[in-house]
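Request from the bench team (R.T.):
"We need a structural guess for the complex before ordering more zinc ion. Sequence and SMILES attached. Just send the tokens back."

Command: build protein-zinc ion structure.
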Amino acid sequence: MLPEGMKRFKFIGTVVMAGIGCFQFLTSSEASAKGPIESIPKATTYHAPPPGVDYSTNPSVFGQILSGKLPARTLTETTNLLAFEDRSPAAELHGLVIPKRYIESVFSLDSQSRTDIELVQEMHQMGLSLIEEYHPEALASGDYTLCFHIPPFTSVDHLHLHVLAPASSMSWWYGSVKYKCPKRWCVSDMTVLERLQEGKPAVPYNKPFKIFPTR
Ligand SMILES: [Zn+2]
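Reply to R.T.: structure attached below.
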């Protein structure tokens, strides 16, 4: 259970993100970006949990994707990670890389845990290989974004890395606001990784909502 204060901020975050979505819908005349992954069918797959992981204790919608209760367009999978297409793609390639182990958000990552640091490294590598597979030209020119949203500006309570390529295929709202790092709501995976490796918290904010950085 979340404390009341946190619930309120989470609610505010959800309202802000919903508002952003409506704004995007009203200001964008283009249809959502379509890329080569359109050819991959939307499938319901059962993703075998790694040893010691129990999907039934994952309360998020991604837990249902992992256990095959909800469909997703799977892009790739390893023992620890699953990547699938975002429900509303913001770029020609818009993948989400998630750990199969339940991790609520960047706030749950522990700089003292070798496993957590290696997990973020693995997520970064998977993000890069997806871009290499679907948009090698974007990888070569650095035209991509790999980022995490920071609570309360998260839509799902399960850590997910956004993989967006080409970044230049995003609308102004997505490219310059929603998926723009570093912002209070968005952080690049490399920043998270570097901070964890330096023994710092993943993001320079406290979990109870604070707008200004702590360190
Ligand atoms: Zn997000």
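Two things stood out. Residues 18-34 have pLDDT under 50 and may be disordered. Residues 4-197 form a domain with the HIT family, subunit A fold (CATH 3.30.428.10).
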